[in-house]
Amino acid sequence: MSEHPLEARLISRRLIADLAARTALDTPGVLRLEPTLKNLLTHLGKGTIQNLRRTDTRTTPARHDGVFVTVHNGIADVQLDIATDIAFAALNVAQAVREQIARTISHTGLVPGRIDISVLAIEHPPTATAARPPTPL
């Protein structure tokens, strides 16, 4: 048996993007992730061809609606776009999301890097009564 353990990489950028999305959605005050035109254009931009040709995919960004993740040298950077509930202070929600995502990344064995949270909308949450069909007269 070798004295040097094998290094396995089970943590992917896609997993970090999924964890960041779930963590944000589980944070009180977050209504939803906000996919943006910027995310779409970034995905379709000139970097896409370079990413397709790239053989080293360890630094290729991963995208999830409203989430953009890069991992380099064991550091995970996250950019997240959210909509928040008007009943919560948006700045406090963004800070809570940032702290929760940093904690979640730490549990994967990666180091949390830059975590940018953009609040793109502040709205009233959908109500349960809005989802019910009208009663007949």
What's the arrangement of secondary structure elements?
Blueprint: H1 13-25, E1 30-33, H2 37-44, H3 47-53, E2 62-64, E3 67-72, E4 75-85, H4 90-107, E5 111-123, H5 128-131
Parallel strand pairs: 4-5
Antiparallel strand pairs: 1-4, 2-3, 3-4
Would you give an account of this structure?
The chain has about 140 residues and is an alpha+beta fold. Helices cover about 35% and strands about 25% of the residues. It has helices spanning about 15-25, 35-45, 45-55, 90-105, 130; strands spanning about 30-35, 60-65, 65-70, 75-85, 110-125. Strands 1, 2, 3, 4 and 5 form a 5-stranded mixed sheet that branches. A hairpin with a 2-residue loop joins β3 and β4 (about 75-85). The longest helix is centred in the C-terminal third of the chain and has 18 residues, at about 90-105. It is elongated, with a radius of gyration of 18 Å.
